[in-house]
Write a structure and sequence with these properties.
- The protein is α+β, with helices and mostly antiparallel strands.
- It has 2 domains: 71 residues, Beta Barrel (Thrombin, subunit H), CATH 2.40.10; 157 residues, Glutaredoxin, CATH 3.40.30.10.
- Helices cover 35% and strands 23% of the residues.
- The protein contains 8 helices and 12 strands.
- The protein starts with a helix and ends in a 7-residue tail after the last helix.
C-alpha cells in the first residue's frame, strides 16, 4: 500500500516539477488558403493534404500546397479521416453519421521516357499499367488499340509496366519489351507478347525478338541490364504509390478509371476533349 502511495506521490511531484525538458515552437508559418479550414489530414504516403473547408468543400493539395482538386462534400460535414486508400475518406456529418467516400481526382504520374502512341502534346493522356501475362491486360490492349486508332493525334496512350509476382514470365517479358524499345520496336514486341501470351517462355521471347529483326546480341545484353530492371522497378513503385491493386489499371489525365470497357473509355475521353466550336 505504502509503495503504491509513494509511487503516486513521486509521479505527481515529477509532473509538477521542471524535471522534463521543455519544448518550444522553433518556427511557425501560416499556410495561405482562400477559405476557412475546419479539419485536415495528410495522406498515408504524405503526397497529398486534404483540407475540409467551413462550407463543406474538400480541398486536395499536393507538394508545395498546389491545389489539385476541390470536391463539394456538403455543408453538414464536420470532420474527415483517412480510409484505406488515398482516394478514400471517412466523413462525419452533423447528424453523427459516418460515411466512406471514394474520391476522384487527378494523380501525378511520371510518364517520362515511357513508351507511347499518339500525340506527345495531346490534351488527353491515357496511362495503362499492364502485365504481359495477364489475360485481362491482353483483352484491354485490343480495346486501347481501337481507341488510339479512333482518336489518333487527339490522345497520348502511355504504357507502364506492372508485372505481377505470381506470373512466372511477366518480368522477363517486361524486360524483353523494354530491351526491344531500345531498338525502336516496343509496340511491335508488345503486340506479339500479348498474341503469344498462352505460349510465353524464354524461347518464345527469343523467337519474337529474332522475328522482329532485332540485334540479338544487344537485345540479350539490354534485357538483363540493371538499367532495364531499374526502368521497370520505377513503374512498379509508381503503381504502388498510386495504390494500384490489380492490372490492368487505367488512368485518364491522372484519374483512375474503374470501368475500362470501350464505351466507357470513349465517354471519358470525349468529356476531356475540347467541345466543338459553335458555327
Amino acid at each position: 500500500m505504502w509503495r503504491c502511495l509513494y509511487a503516486s506521490l513521486l509521479i505527481l511531484l515529477l509532473l509538477a516539477s521542471d524535471g522534463y525538458p521543455k519544448g518550444e515552437v522553433k518556427n511557425q508559418e501560416e499556410i495561405k488558403i482562400s477559405f476557412k479550414a475546419v479539419d485536415m489530414f495528410l495522406s498515408r504516403n504524405g503526397r497529398y493534404a486534404y483540407v475540409l473547408a467551413q462550407d463543406g468543400h474538400l480541398h486536395i493539395f499536393k507538394s508545395g500546397w498546389v491545389e489539385v482538386a476541390s470536391i463539394n462534400l456538403g455543408k453538414g460535414v464536420l470532420g474527415i479521416r483517412q480510409a484505406d486508400r488515398d482516394d478514400e475518406i471517412f466523413v462525419i456529418d452533423k447528424d453523427g453519421r459516418l460515411k466512406m467516400m471514394r474520391l476522384g481526382f487527378p494523380k501525378d504520374i511520371d510518364t517520362s521516357n515511357a513508351p507511347f502512341k499518339g500525340n506527345p502534346k495531346a490534351k488527353v493522356e491515357v496511362v495503362v499499367f499492364s502485365d504481359f501475362e495477364c489475360p485481362y491486360c491482353a483483352s484491354l490492349s485490343k480495346v486501347l488499340d481501337k481507341v488510339a486508332e479512333r482518336y489518333k493525334d487527339k490522345i497520348k496512350l502511355i504504357f507502364k509496366h506492372c508485372p505481377l509476382g505470381y506470373h512466372k514470365m511477366a518480368l522477363e517479358a517486361a524486360q524483353a519489351a523494354v530491351a526491344a524499345g531500345l531498338q525502336g520496336k516496343f509496340w511491335e514486341f508488345h503486340d506479339l507478347l500479348f498474341e503469344n501470351q498462352k505460349d510465353l517462355s524464354s524461347t518464345k521471347i527469343q523467337e519474337i525478338a529474332s522475328a522482329l529483326g532485332l540485334d540479338m546480341e544487344k537485345f540479350k545484353k539490354d534485357k538483363g541490364s540493371p538499367e532495364v530492371m531499374s526502368f521497370i522497378s520505377r513503374d512498379v513503385n509508381q503503381a504502388k504509390a498510386l495504390e494500384v491493386r490489380g492490372v490492368p489499371a487505367v488512368f485518364i489525365n491522372g484519374e483512375y478509371l474503374e470501368d475500362t470497357k470501350e464505351e466507357s473509355l470513349i465517354k471519358e475521353i470525349e468529356q476531356r476533349l475540347e467541345p466543338p466550336k459553335s458555327q
